[in-house]
Design a protein that fits this description.
Radius of gyration: 23 Å
Protein name: Bacterial extracellular solute-binding protein
Largest sheet: 5 strands, mixed
Mean pLDDT: 88
Pfam family, one: SBP_bac_8
Number of domains: 2
CATH topology of the largest domain: D-Maltodextrin-Binding Protein, domain 2
Distance between the termini: 32 Å
Helix content: 25-40%
CATH superfamily of the largest domain: Periplasmic binding protein-like II
Number of helices: 18
Number of strands: 13
Keywords: Signal
Shape: globular
Length: 460
Amino acid sequence: MNKQYIKKGVAVVLSVLMTASLLVGCKKDTDQPQPTDPAETQQNGGEETQGSGEEGKKELKGTLVFAHFNNDEASVLAKAFEDKYPGVTVEVQITDRANDAYVTAVTSDIRAGNPPDVFAAEAADVKRLVNYEGGYEDLSAAPYNAEELKSKLLPYTIEIGRSDDGKIRALSHQGTPAAIGYKRSLARKHLGTDDPAEIAEMFSSKEKILETAKKLGDAGVNIFPTWQELMRIYLGAREKPWVVDGKLTIDDKIYEMIDLVKELRDNGYEGEMNAWDTQWYAAIEDEENFAWAIPTWGLRWIIIAGMEGEEDNPMATAGEWGLAHAPTPYYWGGTWYGIAQDSENKELAWEFIKFLTLDEEQCEAHARKTGDFTSNLAVIEKLSKDESFVHELIGQNPYEFYLPLLDKINPNLMTRYDGTIEDAFQEAMKSYLAGTLTKDEMLQQFKDKVRSDIHDIEVD
């Protein structure tokens, strides 16, 4: 997930808002779930089957090399696997994603014939890595048979983990549907309600967003701190991805978004900030900015990360934030895991990926402990019906809230070129919104940049 930009003291915040009171009714995570699959496989480094009769259980042994771009996520997952299987050591290799360092490191190791056994792929990189020659193992084939997992894991995450030849090559342990996060006190004061359904209606179309922005703007409140919040929402509203049949494609929703954010900017209705900057984080705490694009992980890594753990901060008050549905269901971020084709430890690597995605006890424990949103359908169903599973920051059950969005997410909007294209788009848009380019000039700059950066697609 997109957490490499986080620069604040998250640990202090989490201890205040998550560990103590994030989820009402949390289970203690002291007892690790026991394996339930008595089947035997031959692991590199050895595996023994203990017990007798129907109660025999699997004991895994060996060392697993696990590459990731975010230690906060990787270390928790690795430790959980080691706790369940004490005979296993997980060596975590961390490389930051900045300037493409992580992808460069992983692909260099693949070319050198010394890849990690399991390596992660962030949403911006997953289509590149699942299609990288000699990279991920084909999980659709035996002995993995990942095609059988469609009834167990979020379907859109499975489709995103496919390579262009139709093979499943990576699986995700999390779902990342997204919504609009808003400050309830500002909603009550300036919009007359903080009810999520009514707020959603106020954001349900371009016209409604402009109407809501004017109400807030008249009171000196920005509807969004940056136009990039709307970019995230509108990217999920498209019918077509950035590249169709080898050609750069600009969906009609992108043109609608361009006009909408320009009108917001010209009227002073958005905060003119840049996402992930210090100013953007600081706006989480103020009373001049109303709403953010919030994926499942955004409660923790955007809102809570921006609060700095100030006990007297009114925006840190329990229930001060709310979630409302966006005009179109969308998702943002996610992490996928696959096995290196040249790994000599594939059986153990597969056990690790199954543990992350299919072990229901582990998935539930991880969700309760971290607030993460699992991709495991059985656990999603269970937690969505748990009336005690309430995120104190929003006063809502995030699983119940995000559940209706899951089967509406379009996985076909993602391409291997998205990161490069969206960087070029944002660069051009910033100049346009600053008034240094006309709309036509902005679009031309965008296309020229894509043409210069990507040589295997056609740009009109």
